[in-house]
């Protein structure tokens, strides 16, 4: 159905058949077709250029993404170091509080005995 509609439109616009009654009409038809084809060629070349630019940009972006996603020992080492430092920073206050709490309670609960000096 779609193809039939397309062919019908081309026939209505007289793109499929060009009738010429004399040489002058034939020359005019050929010149008009040449102009139409030149315009189509220009549009095609413009599209190809835009498409080429798009493909170049896309390829460049894909290469950047692939490079950033590539795991290396340096990236792994940096990530592990950062994670260890963050964990250390996050747990240090708790460790300090618990040690101070233990030491304080140990001091309070530990009986003191007088020492003899002589």
Element layout with pairings:
Layout: H1 2-12, H2 23-69, H3 73-109
Please provide a written account of the structure:
The chain is built from 3 helices and no strands. With 118 residues, it is mainly alpha-helical. About 5% of the residues have low confidence. Helices cover 81% and strands 0% of the residues. The longest helix is centred in the middle third of the chain and has 47 residues. The chain is rod-shaped, with a radius of gyration of 42 Å.
Strand content: under 5%
Mean pLDDT: 82
- Helix residue percentage: over 70%
Whole-Å distance between the termini?
119 Å
In short, what is this structure?
By secondary structure, this protein is mostly helical. Helices cover 81% and strands 0% of the residues.
Give keywords.
118 residues; mainly alpha; 3 helices; 0% strand; rod-shaped
């Amino acid at each position: 159905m779609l193809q039939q509609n397309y062919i019908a439109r081309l026939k209505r616009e007289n793109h499929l058949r060009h009738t010429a009654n004399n040489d002058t009409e034939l020359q005019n038809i050929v010149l008009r077709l040449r102009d139409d084809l030149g315009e189509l060629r220009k549009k095609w070349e413009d599209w190809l250029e835009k498409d080429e630019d798009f493909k170049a940009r896309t390829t460049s972006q894909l290469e950047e993404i692939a490079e950033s996603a590539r795991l290396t020992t340096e990236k792994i080492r940096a990530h592990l170091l950062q994670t260890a430092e963050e964990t250390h920073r996050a747990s240090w206050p708790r460790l300090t509080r618990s040690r101070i709490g233990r030491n304080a309670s140990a001091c309070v609960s530990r009986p003191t005995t007088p020492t003899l000096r002589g």
